[in-house]
Each structure stands twice: as C-alpha cells, then as structure tokens.
Amino acid sequence: MLLKVNDLAISYGSKATVADVDIELNKGEILSIVGESGSGKTTVIRAIMGCLPGNGRVSGGFILFDGKNLLENTPAEWRAMCGTEMSMIFQDSGNMINPIRRIGEQFVDYIRTHRPEASRQEAHDLAVKMLEDVRLPNPENVMKSYPFELSGGMRQRVGIALAMVFSPKLLLADEPTSALDVTTQAQIIRQIMDVRKEYDVAVIIVTHNLGVASYMSDKIMVMQQGRVVESGLREDIIANPQHEYTKELLAAVPVVGGKHYYD
User: What pTM was estimated for this model as a whole?
Assistant: First the structure.
C-alpha cells in the first residue's frame, strides 16, 4: 500500500477542524475527496503534503507514505520529498508561477533545485519534454512565455508538467479545474488520467463535483464539516449512497433525461 492515513485529526490552535480521516491508496489508484467549500478537503491533502498554512498541525493519527511515517519528517526531509516523491497541482497553477519570470526560467530552476548535477541545457531539454508530454503546442514558445501570455488551461498544463517532472509516486490535485471553462475542465481531467496511466502514479483529487469524481476515480471519500461521512469504491458510492449528504450531492449533478444516479 502506497498511502495509509489513520484517524487523522488536524487542528488550528486548540480547535480540531478535521477529525477521524482514514485513507488507503494503492499505486495507480485515483481517490476523489468530495464535499462543499469548508468541508476540510484541501486541509487533508495539505496535511499529507506537509504544508498546512498558519498554525495548522496534525493533532492525531498517522500518515504512512511508502512505509514511512511522514509526521516524523524533518524540514529537510520534507523539502527533499516534495516535488520528487509527491507533488501537488494547485487550484490555479497560474497563481503559483512567478508572473515576472518566463516559464522556462522557472522550470529550469525548479529542476536544478532538485537535481543540481543537471546542466541548464539538460534541465531545459527535460522541461521541453514534459511540456510535450502534457500536449502543450510549441513547447519552446511556452518556455519563452510569461504566465500572463498563456491561457488558464495552458498554465494548468504547465503546473501538471512541473508536478510530474520527477515521476512522483503520489500526485495531489486541489480542485485543478475550478478556475477553467467547461471544455478546458474536461481536457485537464483527461490529462490527469493520462498522467496516471503513463506514470502509474496514485492521485488524490479534491473536487466539489461528484460527477467529476464518478468519471475518473477508483475510490470516493465524501466530507462534510471536517468529517468523513461516506467512503468506499466509486461504484458503491454512486450506485448505493448511504448518507443523506452524498445523496444531495448526487442530486445536484446534471444528468441527461433528468434521472439521478440513484434513481
């Protein structure tokens, strides 16, 4: 098993905002964490990545990744692991890219930070290959572009290329399609699924859309108010939801003909 989270609790100050989270994820599986804004979805994946904001901390449970207890990581171990063994795609990758530096400069510096023995030309060639792999047209032009010169979908693909450059074992995606139009959302979802297939990477995707989760996931976890209300295999959650909140989320998904998933 690649990732095992047991009885995870996350607190800000003295207040527990997330509790009793269990996750089991094997290599190559996709888990969708679904729920409304403020339900704790992003908090969970940030805890796994070791990047809780502010005074957030894991106050209970454990996180085992590839047999290692992540809660015992030193800051140096976190820096070495993030980007290489696990990576994150953010909600709008354009906001995570320096707006006054060209894409290529940032990509090359990122590669050489984790692989200092690589020359700038070697890093450049690797960056171009990754941009080609995520199907960006004219990758050399993209390397020369500033972020504001790219569309939202192109910036998100740059974010995916950055996240996958070192072939991590686990990819965390924080609502990677929410800032995009419907057509581009579908393209990014297919891109993530292609990445899973090509690299055999495990994926945890945070989304508020059960339709997206049912399309791409092997497992689904539904959260509400910092708690897991339902979790299991995709087909079980979609075909036979047990919790009323899950039923409400399914009822909110538009379906041709007006029938809901559990009708």
Answer: 0.90
